[in-house]
Amino acid sequence: MDKMPLILLGTLMLTLIACGPAGEGAAGAGGDRPLVVATTGMIGDLAARIAGERATVVTLMSSGVDPHLFRPSEGDVRHMGSADLILYNGLHLEGKMGAILSRMERGRLVVAVGDAVPKERLLELPGFEGQYDPHLWFDVQLWSLTVSPVQEALAALVPEHAAELAERADTVRRALTDLDLWVEEQIAGIPTPRRVLVTAHDAFGYFGARYRIEVVGLQGISTAAEAGLQDVDRLANMIVRRKIPAVFVESSVPRRSIESVVAACKNQGHEVRIGGELFSDAMGPAGTPEGTYEGMVRHNVRAIAEALR
Questions:
Q1: Are 3 and 51 in contact (CB under 8 A)?
Q2: pLDDT at site 31
Q3: Residues 6 or more apart whose Cβ sits within 8 Å of residue 78
Q4: Looking at residue 3, what is its pLDDT?
Q5: What is the Cα–Cα distance from 290 to 32, expressed in whole angstroms?
Q6: Going from the N-terminus, what domains does the chain have, and what CATH number goes with each?
Q7: 295: which of 64, 101, 280, 289 lies 20 to 30 Å off by Cα?
Q8: Which of 220, 71, 57 is nearest to 134 (CA)?
Q9: How many angstroms separate the CA atoms of 271 and 280, rounded?
Q10: What is the pLDDT of residue 220?
Q11: Where are the beta strands (DSSP E) in 60-144?
Q12: Number of C-beta neighbours around residue 238 at 10 A
């Protein structure tokens, strides 16, 4: 939040009230249970699975919301001001929320789950020394490292239920191990020359590194600036030259950028189709299979495998 008046910010942070909706999953104040606020759906899903009935988990960013551009509303700030625990990704994913997250550290537990990943396993951004790709969740094995900080933070709120939380966390880790193996098998079934994932922005770097598929994004890591004509032509030339059969749109990025690439390929005599819509920076709608982390991953991988085989 770039220029929120300090008086208003202080008022919102110090006032603990019953909160209204703040994105999918918002259920009001925690009542007798601790209130946990997660920035993204991926983190909210993880926290809810570990917490069970021991905490109320609210997710700020709903389906289709781009976290690179998200600015918290006054209602979101009130939710955070009432929270016992705030969980966020870090690594500058929530680019517009940096200042407010720093202020929220005064008086409550605030945890960046990305801090659990060793620096040597992070992907450094080309040309930006010391800056790393924040899209950790696309490597399921890597994402499993975020289970422990979430479990530990929840246990700090309800230490009497620490053993129960640890058991749930172990269940989540086992499920993620199974999911990781399934993704490996699906991607390995794509013929090597076709194993190229073209998307709207460069969010799938960890996915490519873990599952051995080349990833090419029209835009860079952030979606703050739109792709230009040179970007479209560069990508279209590569697709035509390598006869790539399909490209993919993303649920949180406007379709027009990839549609421009498809049109540019057609102008060169190569028919490339849109292989499907992938969930990148946000999960699917609440209450759908894609509204869970595992469901989102399975949806993406099925779409990729079916379009590129």
A1: no
A2: 60
A3: 12, 15, 17, 19, 20, 22
A4: 38
A5: 30
A6: 6-179 (3.40.50.1980), 184-308 (3.40.50.1980)
A7: 101
A8: 220
A9: 25
A10: 56
A11: 85-88, 109-112
A12: 15
As given in the structure block, the two tokens for residue 49 are 């699975």
Q: What distance in Å separates the CA atoms of residue 84 and residue 91, rounded to the nearest whole number?
A: 22
- Residue 132 pairs in a beta bridge with 124
Q: In whole angstroms, what separates CA 39 from the centre of its chain?
A: 9
Q: Which residue has the tokens 């975020």?
A: 146
| Of 284, 139, 259, 107, the residue nearest 209 (C-alpha) | 139
pLDDT value, residue 35: 97
Reduced to 3 states (helix: H, G, I; strand: E, B; else coil), residue 287 is coil
pLDDT of 227 reads 57
Give this prediction's pTM: 0.85
Quick one: angle between helices 293-308 and 162-188, nearest 10?
A: 0
The tokens for 65 are 């919301």
CA–CA distance, 218 with 234 (Å, rounded to integer): 9
pLDDT of residue 10: 38
pLDDT at residue number 231:
87
Tokens (6 digits) for 185:
């098998």
Q: Within 10 Å of residue 18's Cβ, how many Cβ atoms?
A: 10
217 forms beta bridges with 199
How far, in Å, CA of 46 to CA of 173, rounded?
Answer: 10
Which tokens is 294 given? 């595992």
Integer Cα distance of 180 and 174 in angstroms = 10
**CA pseudo-torsion sign 178, 181, 186, 189:** negative
